[in-house]
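We modelled the chain as a single entity of 521 amino acids. Its sequence is:
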Amino acid sequence: MEQETKKKVKRKISKKALVTIIILLVILLAILGYGYYYFLTTTALIEEKEAEASELEPDTARVERGSLTNTLEDISGIVRSSQSVYLYWQTSGTVSDVYVEPGDQVKKGDVLAELDRSTIDPSIIDAEVTREQAQEKLERLYTSTLTLEQARTKMVEAKKAVEDAQKGVDALGIVRADWIELGVKYDDYQRSIAAYEEAKKNFDAVKMLDLDNVIRINALSRMENAKSQMDSAKAQYNWYNGEAEEIDIQKADAALRLAQAQLDDAVRAYDRIKDGPTDNQVRSLQAEADAAAATVNTAKIIAPINGTVAEVEAKPFDVIAYESASAAKNKLALRIDDLSSHYIDITVTELDINNVHMGQQVTITFDAIPLREYKGYIVNISNAGVVEDLTVNFDLTVKMEETDDSIKSGMMADVAIVTEKAEDTLYVPQKAISVAEDGLTRVVHKLMADGSYMEVPVTVGMTSKENIQISSDMLSEGDEVMLHKVTSLLNSNFTFSNMFGGGRNPMMGGGAPGGGRRPRQ
């Protein structure tokens, strides 16, 4: 009984295994059939594409000379002015005047709008008085400075007068003639003395006569004439001999003493004011005037920069309720933009950040300005990245080299950054490059005059879209080189494993082998 039971179990197991084997064989045959069908259809498709490529693609291309560039493209940013200033009311009151409109050009310091004086806080009026008083004090300080300069000038002039007076005194003792001429003057002086004494003697003899006596009158006249001639001769002799008259000496001394006294007065006047207002005094008064002016200006909107009025919110009769402790205190009055230059803020990923640098050239286009291309350059690069959706981005700022009325703040701009550039270089299509039998050397096949191709080693450089930079002593501009068909290269990548998804199907797209990011050309 037990043996019969074991035989039945074995029979049952054998039937299940047989069914399983049959199912597996059917599946295997189906897979092999699909694989064979896939292989045939894919091969036919490749052959069809090769035939099309043979008809469309040229067999050769010329070696060209020119410029190659690589750019980061598809970067967008928003245009902004070099500076935008939002001006808010700083006190309560009623708007009395608004002096500008959007588009007006303004200069730093221009008053653009102000509040009615009758509606502002009295402390602002008091500040205006304080400002005027501080300015008056400053003016007096500046006047004292002017007086100091005047006192210094008078002191210098008085010193010069003393020097001139001293020269006058010193000049009285100078001998002005030689001994012969001086002897003549001395003899003239002695004769005049003798003539005077003779005339005096004659007058003494008749001086007792009546005053109206003719003899007495004549004698007196001759004596006075002799005295005058004697004094004149003495003066001439003394002048030539360097001997001054007492009166001349007295006059010169008096002039010197006067000049010295005037110099002393000038020095004392200068000393009194030379230690006038200090720098600290001036700075203190200036700070007081500036603080008061700042308070007064809270009732005004004043342009802090040169620019263009971009927005005007203030209107006459607006009531401004300013509360310094409230978030609602920021009541916008105007906005001013400096439109002398425009900037564009953009971002690049961490994969591209090391390809950009300060001063790098960029090209800028606008959808709103078709058929125009602008130039610019990078003026700022962030040193810290920002993570957004698992991507690290870095902020850049581009300054436009040129601007016009077509460009408006807020426009969307497309920026292309030139990351690599080669000037005056030889280049060929990338399809002209192949690898030599050693597996290392890059070569092109140069078309010869007899129709054959010669393998020419080349050194490759940068790539730009479909072209690649080359250098070789055996190639020149205008030479023809062979182009390798793209589809023939696809054939070499096809394997039987493609039909199971184990490799990249060249006809079905997909990423580059090995994954990674495709470099931007």
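As a brief sanity check on the tokenised model: Residues 5-10, 487-521 have pLDDT under 50 and may be disordered. The chain has seven helices and 20 strands.
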